[in-house]
Amino acid sequence: MELLDAFGNPASPAMITPQGFNLSLWPDADKQRLIKDDLEKVTVWESAFGNFFGEYHEMANNWRMIVDNRGRKGFPVAKTSETTRATNTLASLEYRMLTAADPYVEARAEGLKEDGTEATESELYATERVLMRQNQVLKFKKKLLRGIRSGKLFGTAIFECPFVSTPYHSLSKSFEGTDLVLRPLIQFGFDPYCYDIELSDYVFTVDYVSKFRLLQMAQGQDSIWDLGAVNEAIGDQESGKASRDFSTNVYNQINQRKQRAGYQENAKDVYEVVTMHGFSDINNPLVRAFWDSTGSQDDPGMVHFTRSFINGKNLARFHVTPYGNWRHLFKIASMNEFELEPIGYGVGRLGKRAQIQLDATQSRMDALMKM
Q1: Maximum CA pair distance of the chain?
Q2: Which of 110, 150, 214, 363 is an S-S bond match for 78, by CB 3.0 to 4.6 Å?
Q3: How big is the CA angle at 219 (ends 217 and 225), to the nearest 5 degrees?
Q4: What is the pLDDT of residues 305-322, one digit of tens each?
C-alpha cells in the first residue's frame, strides 16, 4: 500500500506513452538550426578535400584517356593507356576471385534458430537460392565490377546497401532485396579529421534529382518524408521565389567530370538533396520530441539519425537511421591504406608520375614522326 500511495498507478513509473510526431507541424526555427549544423559539416568536408577533387578529375581523365589538345609548349599531347590497363587488370583480377565460384555465396549456420533447432541443409540451400536470385535481379555482379574498378583507380570505393523493393515506390511489391549502389567520392562526405572513414561520427551523400524522382521518394515513404516540404521546395523553384543556388559545390564537380567525357549540362529542374546519417544535437527540441515519440528508453545521444534537406533550405526527412548506425547502410573498401589517411592509394595516385612521363615520351615521339 505504501508503494501504491507513493506512485499512484503502479504502472505509471515504468510506462511512457509515445506521442505522435509530425515533422510538417514542427517550428521552422528548429528545422533551420538542424540544417545549419549539418551544412557546417558539409562545408568543412568540401574545404578539406578541395585538392582531392582536382586529383579525382585528373585520375578519371587518365583512365578514360582524355587528352588535352596542346601541351605547355604548344605541341600535341598524347595519352598512353597505362592507368587504364593497370586499373582494369587489378579490377578484373579481384572481381574474378570474388565471383569465380558457382555459386559464389555460401550459407552457413551460426547458432540456433528461434525454436532452438539447427538449420537444416535444405534451409541453407534455400537461403543460397534466395540470395542468388536477389543478386540476379539487382544486377549485383555488374555493380560490383563497377565499384571495384573505381576503388582500384581512386583508392577507395563507397557502397551504399539500401533495402529496396520493386516495382520502385509501388504498393504492389513483387521483389525485395539489399541493393549495392556505388557512391562516387565527390558525392560522399565524412568527418575529414578521422584517419579511418569507419570512425567518422557521420557520413552524408549529395544527390541531384528531378522533381518527379523527389516526389516518388516522398510518396513511397510518406511515414518518414514531409511531402509538404517537398512540394514547397518544388513550388519555390518553379515560381522563381528560390533560384537554383545549391548549398554545396558538388553539382559543379559532377558537371566538370561529365563534360570532360562529352556530356552536356541539361538539368533545368534539378534539386539538391543532402542526406546526413549520424549523431544529431539532442538539445534541439525537434530531435528530443521525435525521440520521445518513439517511446524508446535508449540514450538518443548514442543513436544515429537520418535527415534530408532540399537545396539547403527545406528539411524533408527525419528518422532514426536503420539499426541506429550509418555503418549498416554503407560499406567501405580501400586499397593501400596508409596511416592518418582515410583515402587509400590507388592506381591513379601511385601511377600519376609514371603516367605523366609516359605521356611526355609518347608526345615527343609523335611530334618527331610528324616533323
Answers
A1: 107
A2: 363
A3: 70
A4: 999 999 999 999 999 999
DSSP for 40-83 reads HHHHHHHHHTHHHHHHHHHHHHHHHT---SS-TTS------SHH
Cβ(304)–Cβ(322) under 8 Å?
no
Q: Is the dihedral of CA 247, 250, 251, 256 positive or negative?
A: positive
CA atoms within 13 A on the CB side of 147: 21
Say if residues 285 and 33 touch (Cβ distance below 8 Å).
Answer: no
Cβ proximity of 123 and 152 under 8 Å: no
Report pLDDT digits (tens) over 258-301. 988 888 876 668 899 999 999 999 999 999 999 998 888 889 99
How far apart are the C-alpha atoms of 317 and 285, rounded to whole Å?
Answer: 16
Q: What's the DSSP call for residue 201?
A: S
> What is the residue whose three cell numbers read 593507356?
81
Length of the chain: 371
Per the CB < 8 A criterion, the answer to whether 272 and 310 are in contact is yes
Distances (CA, A) of 2 to 6, 12, 15, 82: 6, 15, 20, 83
pTM for this prediction: 0.86
| Vertex 356 angle, CA 353 and 360, to 5° | 140
**DSSP H or E stretch at residue 105:** none
**278 and 305 Cβ atoms separated by less than 8 Å:** yes
